[in-house]
Amino acid sequence: MTTPTSGAEVDEGYVGPASLVTTDNREIAVQVHLSGHFEPVAGTYQWTGRVDPDPGVTALVEEGEREVVLRTYQHRASALLGEANPWGGFRITGRGQPPFSVPEAEVDTGR
Asked: Within 13 Å of residue 45, how many CA atoms lie on the same side as its CB?
């Protein structure tokens, strides 16, 4: 499977290239698979996904760096790197504006 250079929009998500930016402004080019949804109880948009295996990301996590900014060609968002998966990638999560476009919801006012 080839990855598009500009990324691909998926239903409420994104698959493609991105950059992880650390608190000391190091930048690592990565591939991500993201999705999200509005969580009505919390009142926020929650998104999650995975970062494909990358030695730079592994080094970040081993250094204890978990808080990053994830940037795609669409948006940027604060994120938290989670646990490694069995294939060497890492879980990534965030709340609020995701690093991908989200369709606007229509509100039914009953009128």
From this structure: 20
Residues constituting the chain: 111
DSSP state of 15: E
Question: What is the Cα–Cα distance from 27 to 18, expressed in whole angstroms?
Answer: 10
Amino acid identity of residue 1, one-letter, is M
Domain map (residue ranges) of the chain: 19-95
d(CA 64, CA 62): 5
Residue 13's pLDDT is what?
87
At 14-70, the pLDDT tens digits run 999 999 999 999 999 999 999 998 888 888 889 999 999 999 999 999 999 999 999
**C-alpha–C-alpha distance, residues 99 and 75, integer Å:** 4
Paired with 33 in beta bridges are 15, 50
User: How much is the average pLDDT of 60-81?
Assistant: 94
Tokens, residue 88 = 């060497």
Which structure tokens are listed for 28? 């690592």
